Amino acid sequence: MADWLTWTLIIAGLFGAVFAFVSYPIWKRPNDLHIFVAGAIALLLLVQVGLGIATAIAGAGPSGNTAEWWLYLITAVVVVFVGTIWSFVDPNKWSLLIHAAIGITIAVMVYRMHQIWFIQIA
Amino acid sequence: MGILKGVSDSEKLTTRSKGFGSFLVVAYGILALAALGRSFIQITSRFEEAPLSYSLSAVSALVYIVALVALLLKGSFWHSVAWVAISFEMVGVLLIGTASIIWPDQFQHTTVWSLYGNGYGFFPLVLPMLGIWWLWKVGKNR
């Protein structure tokens, strides 16, 4: 698990959360910019999926539970995609809170993945 | 502008899943996934280590899923189901949270509800409070 990607994802998630909050006084509801932010996070997560597969093929992997690590990653991808689409079913101020929740969740999950990869012992 | 304009379809939503409820749906969805994934790993890889904690993880995952479904589906039956699920969740997090402080040796393997959900930023404690407030609020306007 590459450090640069971990930190980029955590910062992207936290940025997404802050951006959702500061968007409230400006736009009152999510718009295409929030889709771009969520899309960037999704893209980074998919890069992590690719790197995870490449690492597994090379015979390496997390120091902790491999299945747990993949479950976190897949859940993170699902949360970004489904959460973003759901936030546009009825876009309002609470949909911005959804984007904030997605961002914080991704940051926490990627941090947990980092722990499973480097610190946790299976 | 308006990439996801096509998915906008608020008329099909229940009152429970509109407005603040739409955030609750996401919160329950995330906790359901987290609890389900966690209990799946715990039960398949090391169930014998802590059967009590890991069974509780599975129960909490089920409660979150029921609450999520009940928020999304129409009708007063599902409104009642949401009440039952979220009340159960409130009692669960208080009981297990307290029990994990009184008998820490029984809860060395964490569940979503142990120490009032501190492993999840106390969200499992706050969420049922928000859920109960929300069901009470939309229930009045029915």
Detail the topology: elements first, then pairings.
The complex is a heterodimer of chains A (122) and B (142).
Chain A: H1 3-27, H2 32-57, H3 66-87, H4 93-118
Chain B: H1 20-46, H2 51-72, H3 76-102, H4 123-140
Helix pairs in contact in B: 1-2, 1-4, 2-3, 3-4
Key attributes of the depicted protein:
heterodimer, A: 122 residues, B: mainly alpha, 4 helices, 0% strand
Describe this structure as you would to a colleague.
- The complex is a heterodimer of chains A (122) and B (142).
- By secondary structure, chain A is mainly α.
- Chain A has one domain (3-118).
- Chain A has four helices and no strands.
- The mean pLDDT of chain A is 95.
- By secondary structure, chain B is mostly helical.
- Chain B has one domain (17-140).
- Helices cover 66% and strands 0% of the residues of chain B.
- Chain B is built from four helices and no strands.
- The interface between A and B is medium-sized, with 30 and 29 residues.
Instruction: Note the main sheet of chain B.
Output: none
Structural class of chain A: mainly alpha
Alpha-carbon distance between the two ends of chain A? 16 Å
Question: How many structurally independent domains of chain B?
Answer: 1
**Helix share bin of chain B:** 55-70%
The stretches of 5 or more residues of chain A where confidence is low (pLDDT under 50) are none
How is the quaternary structure best described? Answer: heterodimer
Can you give the helix content of chain A as a percent range? over 70%
Rg calculated over all Cα atoms of chain B: 17 Å
Q: Radius of gyration of chain A from the CA trace?
A: 15 Å
Count of discrete structural domains of chain A: 1
> What is the overall number of helices of chain B?
4
**Largest interface chains and counts:** A-B, 30 and 29 residues
Strand percentage of chain A lies at under 5%
Number of strands of chain A: 0
